[in-house]
Amino acid sequence: MSGKDYNGGTDGEMAHRHPRKLLVKLPTIFKKNERYLAVELLKQGNRATLFGLDRDRAISVRRTWFQPNESVSVSASESAHAKGLERLLRALPKGKYPTLLILDPAFAATIPGAVLLEREHAHRVIDDGELENLISQAVWRFFDHYRPIAMARLGVNDLDLLLANIRILDVRLDGHHVFNPIGFTAKTVEVALEQTFVARPLFDEVTKILPKHTIEFITEAGVAGLQVLSRSVP
């Protein structure tokens, strides 16, 4: 079991109260014969890349646009970055594309890690319900541990921190990788995952321009570029 993507569409407060709300599976990110838009909001400027898949499921870049920022300071206001994005998007061909949002480290923190869980009834086989519960526990513990770290990195308080994306990377039973844990027994379950936190002020400005329903994946720049994301192609 690896490489599953979840998008809670929720903030820290909602995740704290309802961790199960985070387990909403995204549609498959990449499909053949469709075009996608990667939008990067970076210190030096905003970049948009229109791409698709070729017959070998490799990413094929169709066109790239770049809009330099008037100021290279990441301390520039969120509205200034958003205005630059709005100018950039005017140059794109008309149409709504599934969008990958890649943010400067000043605005997003993608944090990888692992959570080790002990099963109360190690002799029982793992079923669908228990697996969902284990993943929910892992997501909650990970969120609870790394939320203060993300707040410090982004320089925001709890109310201005959004949990934007969850990626389940791997599951190991008693230290051994398994493709699907269902039907196995184990004393311990280790869930490797990554969570992406974003600053609410910038996200609110961006979603005034990019409709939320078109944003399928959010990550920190430098953590997952197009070549890394290509590993998610089914």
Structure description:
- The chain has one domain (4-232).
- It is an alpha+beta fold and 234 residues long.
- Strand 3 and strand 4 form a beta hairpin.
- Helices cover 24% and strands 34% of the residues.
- The strands form two sheets. Strands 1, 2, 7, 8, 9 and 10 form a six-stranded antiparallel sheet that branches. A five-stranded mixed sheet has the order 5-4-3-6-11.
Proportion of residues in extended strands: 25-35%
Largest sheet: 6 strands, antiparallel
Order of helices and strands: EEHEEEHEEHEEEHEH
Report the structural category: alpha+beta
Shape: globular
Average pLDDT number: 78
Radius of gyration: 19 Å
Helix content: 10-25%
Note poorly predicted spans. 6-28, 230-234
Individual helix count? 5
**How many structural domains does the protein architecture include?**
1
Gap between N and C termini: 13 Å
Can you count the beta strands? Answer: 11
List the helices and strands and how they pair.
Layout: E1 4-6, E2 10-11, H1 12-17, E3 35-41, E4 45-53, E5 59-68, H2 78-90, E6 99-103, E7 108-118, H3 128-154, E8 161-173, E9 176-177, E10 188-199, H4 200-206, E11 215-220, H5 226-229
Parallel strand pairs: 3-6, 6-11
Antiparallel strand pairs: 1-8, 2-8, 3-4, 4-5, 7-10, 8-9, 8-10
